[in-house]
Structure formats: C-alpha cells, structure tokens
C-alpha cells in the first residue's frame, strides 16, 4: 500500500493520510467488508435449485417405464427357456423342463438317467406364494386348470438336441394381471403381456 497525503502534513502516520491501493483507488473499508462476505445469496441458491429441478424433470421424462415384478418373472423364465434350447443343442443332451405349482426346474438326460442340470443358468426356481401358473398346449388349446397345479403333479416338456421341442404356453398370474410365455415346436420363445385387470 502507498500512503498519499491528503493534506499538507508530511507525516504519514498523522491525521489526514489515507491508504490507497496500487490501482490508485482509495480504500474506505468497503473492500475489506466485501472480502469478508463469502456466503451465497438467496438468488444464487434459487437459480441452482431451478437448474436441478429442470435436470430432474428431463431425467424422469426420458426414463423408461418401470417393469413390474410379473414381467420380470416372465422375462427370466423366457430367457431360461431360450438358454435351455441352445444348451441342449450345444451340449448334445436332452433337456427337460419340470413345472409344478411352486416353480420350475431343468433336468438333463445323461448316462441313462434324468438329473438336475449342471448349467448354472438352469438352476431350480421357486415362485413367490402370490404367483401361480396356468399351462396349456397349443395343439388342442386345452388349459390345465390351476386346481391341478396345486396338486403335486409335475408337467414335463422336453428340448431335443436336434432343436425340436414340445410346444406349450405358460401363463404367469399375479393379482389380476397375467403374462403368457409361449414356446413353439421350433424352440422360439415369446413373451406376451396382457392387460387383465
């Protein structure tokens, strides 16, 4: 800082001397107060909140709709069916799907006997108690009533290493909604969502 005399006195420490910045401006204390004020103003805070709200709105609008648990269960089942068909062809083992009221499992025919599949993706699946299955065969479209599924009877469908399969439909129910998983005799799997309310 440079001392510039404001009067005729020659003593810099005496009255009348003012501190001046190197830019030539006088320091009357306003700069010191401005440097001590380091907070955020209300206007700045509101601007940041508005920007965050707009970004959140864009993210919510562009996000895909949520997939329900019923759809996820049916999609997993369809993916496992598709994998079972491919695994049967590549491993050269017949694969069977066993379905009952509580869930499903895959078995493979090795050394003259049916045993649980060794593939990690074809492990047994137990359904939640509030889900149930309804099954039908497309050749006669005769539905197997779910009262039969509550019995210990197991329905078996096979996948051949040649790519041939038994055609069937599995309907997953939850509350008043249902989704069909359809497999044709060529091994193609399709998930069909229905709006049953």
UniProtKB/TrEMBL annotation:
Main location, first listed in the record: membrane
Coiled-coil residue windows: none
Membrane association type: Single-pass membrane protein
Location(s) in or outside the cell: Membrane
One Pfam family cited in the UniProt record for this chain: N_methyl
InterPro entries in UniProt: N_methyl_site (IPR012902), Pilin-like (IPR045584), T2SS_protein-GspH (IPR002416)
Matches recorded under Gene3D superfamilies: minor pseudopilin epsh domain
Record-annotated membrane-spanning stretches: 42-63
Keywords, ordered alphabetically: Membrane, Methylation, Transmembrane, Transmembrane helix
Entries under NCBIfam families matching the protein: IV_pilin_GFxxxE
Name of the protein in question: Prepilin-type N-terminal cleavage/methylation domain-containing protein
Organism field: Hyphococcus lacteus
Phylogenetic lineage: Bacteria, Pseudomonadati, Pseudomonadota, Alphaproteobacteria, Parvularculales
